[in-house]
């Protein structure tokens, strides 16, 4: 590990090993810049605090900024409090510092774009697991079932969401091209199609936000559940 590297640790949840990763930027002097858990603020803390005595991994990239640039980018966001588990989490921040692109592979792989699945059916077992509501089913089993449902939803819905986003970009280009050709009729038609796809994307995003809140609650409550 060296100055300007993107490092991460695997965090456990109940009996599930390595459910999520916590990312940060190694400052090279025994400190790390990262989204600090609890404050949801980008801070520079000791590496010991960041790792919490867990094994540390380095994320490698074929093309990336030099170390000094990475550090400068990380420092430019110190104090930021715009944490969002889906759109601006610790991995988004660290990847942006390294590559210039805000990206979270674990969100892409795990947290679904919820639409067809019934949110209420998932929230009830989560509520039971977190609040300790009496049930005949083991807490860990409830959580595992909820996570399994989430994964299934992701695998079913992600292709549709990606297609919708592509359609939005395509119709925007069509509208621009039509305007350049003085075809206002075609431009209006293209923008109407873009609007239809945007409405669909908004529906998916609204559902995603509901699930994100539940997922974040699960992850944040790991210590509470583990001690119950």
Catalogue the unreliable spans: 13-18, 111-120, 129-137, 221-228
The number of distinct β-strands equals 5
Average pLDDT taken over every residue: 75
From N to C, what is the helix and strand string? EEEEHEHHHHHHH
The best one-word shape is globular
Class by helix and strand content? alpha+beta
Query: How far apart are the first and last residues' alpha carbons, in Å?
Result: 37 Å
The fraction of residues in strands falls at 5-15%
Helix content: 55-70%
Total number of distinct structural domains: 2
Radius of gyration over all CA atoms, rounded = 21 Å
Q: In this structure, how is the largest beta sheet organized?
A: 5 strands, antiparallel
Give the strand line-up of the largest sheet: 4-3-2-1-5
Helical run tally: 8
Main features:
single chain, about 230 residues, alpha+beta, endopeptidase fold (from Nostoc punctiforme), 2 domains, five-stranded antiparallel beta sheet, 8 helices, globular, disordered C terminus
Describe this structure in words.
The chain is of the alpha+beta class. The chain folds into 2 domains: about 5-110, endopeptidase fold (from Nostoc punctiforme); about 120-225. Helices cover about 55% and strands about 15% of the residues. It is built from 8 helices and 5 strands; from the N terminus they run ββββαβααααααα. The protein has helices at about 45-50, 65-75, 90-100, 105-110, 120-130, 140-180, 185-220, 220-225; strands at about 5-15, 15-25, 30-35, 40-45, 55-60. It has a 5-stranded antiparallel sheet. β3 (about 30-35) and β4 (about 40-45) form a beta hairpin. α5 (about 120-130) crosses α6, α5 (about 120-130) runs parallel beside α7 (about 185-220) and α6 packs antiparallel against α7 (about 185-220). The radius of gyration is 21 Å and the shape is globular. Mean pLDDT is about 75; it is low at about 15-20, about 110-120, about 130-135 and about 220-228.
